[in-house]
Amino acid sequence: MLDFTSLRRSDIPELVRITRENMAQIILSAWGVEWRDETLLETLMDANLLIEVALEGQKVVGYHVLDQMEDYIFIVSIQLEKQHQGKGLGRFMMERVEESAIRSGLEGVELCVQSTNEQAIGFYRHLGYRLASRRRNNLTMRKQFGLK
Prior knowledge:
The chain is α+β, with helices and mostly antiparallel strands. It has one domain (about 5-145): Aminopeptidase. It has helices spanning about 10-30, 35-45, 90-105, 120-125, and strands at about 5, 50-55, 60-70, 70-80, 110-115, 130-135, 140-145. A hairpin with a 2-residue loop joins β2 and β3. α1 crosses α2 (about 35-45). The longest helix has 20 residues, at about 10-30. The protein is globular. The chain starts with a strand and ends with a strand. The model has no long low-confidence stretch (mean pLDDT about 95).
């Protein structure tokens, strides 16, 4: 399975590569603009966010960036290398985030997904996430635990 570690500066080029490969076409189709590494780099440098890198052995295969927003964990970004998708690792990463929210006594997990990212939308729906709101091409999806 996967191991998780805190972000190391040496991980950044690999995280940028993974995200660019996963998101460049989605951003272009949703917004008509080219992918910009700078936006991701700003997120990765934000000391207020929790960033965990997913490792398979010593190889970086994904990551997630989390922010606590009142009673929810908000997934700022979650990425997994394409060749590792479809093997249960994405579900494992999402379950890790959800378990963290439950342990913290939070109501649930939220995330944004591009309306053109049909594969991700289907994945999140399969995991129990429901549409909470839509703002242009950004869909906010939420999974509530009903703890409170």
